[in-house]
Predict the 3D structure of the following.
Amino acid sequence: MPPDRAPYDVVVVGLGLAGLMAGLGATSGGARTLLVGKGHGTLRFRSGTIDVLGYWNDRSLGSPAEGLPAVAAERPNHPYALAGEDLGSGLEAIRTTAGAAGLDLDGSLEANRMVATAAGTMRPTCLAPPTMRADWDGAHVLVVGLAGYRDFQADLVASVLPAAGAKLGLEVEARAATVDLPSLHRHHLSGLELARLFDQSAFRRELLAALRGTLGDATVVALPAVVGLEHAPEAADDLARQLGVPVAELPTLPPSVPGLRLELAITAALRRAGARLQVGTFVRAIPQGGRIGWVEIQSPGHPLRVPVGRMVLASGGLASGGLEVRLDGTLRETVAELPVWLPESAQGALVGRSFLESSGHPVSLAGVQVDGAMRPLGREGSPLYENLFAAGGLLAGADRAVEKSADGICCATGWRAAQEAVA
Amino acid sequence: MGGGATGAGLTRDLAMRGLRCLLVEQSDLAHGTTGHFHGLLHSGARYAVRDAEAADECIVENRIVRRIAAPHVEDTGGLFCWLEGDPDDYPGQLVAGCQKAGIEIEEISVAEARRREPLLTPRLGRAFAVPDATVEPWGLVADNAESAVDHGASIRRYTRLVGLGVEAGRVLWADLEDIGSGERERVEVNFLASAAGYWAGRVASLAGVKLQMAPGWGTMVVMNQRLSSSVVNRCRPPGDGDILVPVGPVSILGTTDTTLDTDNYEITPEEVRFIVTEGAAMVPAAAERRALRVFAGARPLYDPGHQHGESRTLSRSHMVLDHANDGVDNFISIVGGKLTTYRLMAEHTADAVCAKLGVDARCRTAEEPLGEARKTPRHYSLGDRLTAREQEAGGADADLVCECELVTRDMVREFIESFGTPHIDDMLRALRLGMGPCQGAFCMLRAAGILERMRPSGAAALEPIRLFLDERMKGDRPIMWGDQARQFRLNEIIYRDVLALDHAP
């Protein structure tokens, strides 16, 4: 069947962090690039932080750099064992791109910092916006809930936060206040609606007026991570200046406003660089000889065939739909029907008995195996297609939930896959 | 003893005959086998070929339960579907058996069957309509219990029987332990009737009586949608995976039959796949749609021969055992049976109790409706609950904590007020919170927040979420495929990647 369109140099399938990183890599290498995906990626479900490596072998890591050699030595199919060298370049690329949109991402591979969450817990991360990098030790925290917003329970946060800090040797005091503002007088406020309210100075003044009486000896004001969307840095700075204390954003349930800020910053940069982005269509990769010949985009009316120069597959893991579990317990890769590797530990059951199983769930390690050039491997261990590269959540070998490594893997492998695809 | 459908029905029956009764339940009412079944109000057709007695009882009781418990019954009707390759002689036997038992059965055309149930397989060769229905067990038991109390009975939940005093062939007292407080109390016993189902053997052993139960475990798979409007039965001899029951917003695929004397039956992914595959033979969509939960219930079958193996061959009829034959004169047990005939089981037991006590009083439970049995049976409507919530909210958006199951903040608050310090899993049973497709992803954090505000527990505030996550894993683990696996990973992203509950204090 003949293709319907003029060729792109690089077609990226998947619009999550790995796909966007691959797009940045491809466009910066001068490639004509198409990014296409079934939906928005999991950035909108995550924190807007870049978690690189927080834990390895049940050990809390002071920095990602400290753990990376062990990962490479102990787990040869871990994405960091294969693409760890590109981690620094990937992080630099996202930092620069976010920074150009006014979103700073602070931090380095040499240190993990703790971000507090809407569960009152503390989680190690590598890069984070300034509003998530509060100095918790010795802090007196006023945790502010907003009436009508169900996904941030200030009482719960204030109850847990001191104990979470103590576990890390940090002295944290916390108390809760839930403010009821006329602008919030309705049920079912979403994080996105709140973020747009925070963009407006009138709403911030309303909030400030309500908070002044309750501030007391607070040294940090903790809010759900919804402080502004398009004018987020300005909103946070304005609040902090008026309150006289720093404002901390605590990541909470989806949709993630900080994740969306990051997504908007990167997609804007991609469009400026001439890439085309197409959201909302399922994609199949069609092999032709030893290569991917074209992608078939399930657009309304009839499928659209787009010829492929090089292709980066970044369709994600189980949550994104890049991987799927069949009724018989085997896994399938949904775009190119690549073989999916499943660890031996998954033979009995794909998941453990306890949700928070400290060793993680066997199915988490499942995924597509790749070589050092990010080319998916066949059952016998050699690359399947000369022009196909894979990145992100669909790669085998990492338990992202246990390691707190999902974002770093996307940055390293997305960047590496793009380098190989434009080489 | 025993707060399932039979125990609650028996207490009501005895209380209506003027006896002073105490009902003791070790857990919540309907928490055992009654709450773990597929929801079918049998027409009796399933038994018509092999178990004529059970078939007769079912059709009579089916009509009675529709009348006395209308609000809890949905008049779905049922279809027996004969697929190409199924035994040729079974449809004839089914029709003959039903006619003999007085069960209305009518062969309808394949086209008509498909009109009623568009998702039926292309392999459908013949179809027979029968008066199956579905029944909601928690409401049924609650109404029986309420009626019993109205007639003077007392009920103790979360109370365990820990000892029986037997002297000279009579039970004289019972030792009861409150599970919450651990307090014990000795109550005088004039007559002991055990409707403890699968646990009947243990009650009997406390009186020194040997009673061998042969619990037949049945596994059921809850599908996320209604896949049919009527009950869909496979038209072949009874076997595993031969039924699909629409229950409220979901469908239940059943079932297996494994005889195993255990309290903790572990469901295997293999039997779940088998049930889904067999269900998909009748309704192919069952293999593609999402499975939401699995559970298993123990059929309280009595094994007079102490034989083990396939329990489906044991009669589904019930038996009233007079333990005078075992040397205890004022003690009887009711064993076997099924939810459809719960009222008849209660009647037979109450008859036996009254005969032994010399009380001359007639059973009235077949005539007197339960609770608000004024509504006419009809189909479940997906919009009903939302309409009710919006009416409660005065026409505005309801303040929902759980969108999947339409649970409001006030419902959660009131439940906490009345319960004390509940687990989120208690909210699930009472309010359906967390029972829907998102598997608690959003409502867990919200419910834990409301709980912490009303019942502060400090650093332990995340414990309810952790317990609930683990409780859900039990019903989740054997159905880890398709969208259910996808939801699992999404929930892991939320509660582990983002909220880091794995390192909670």
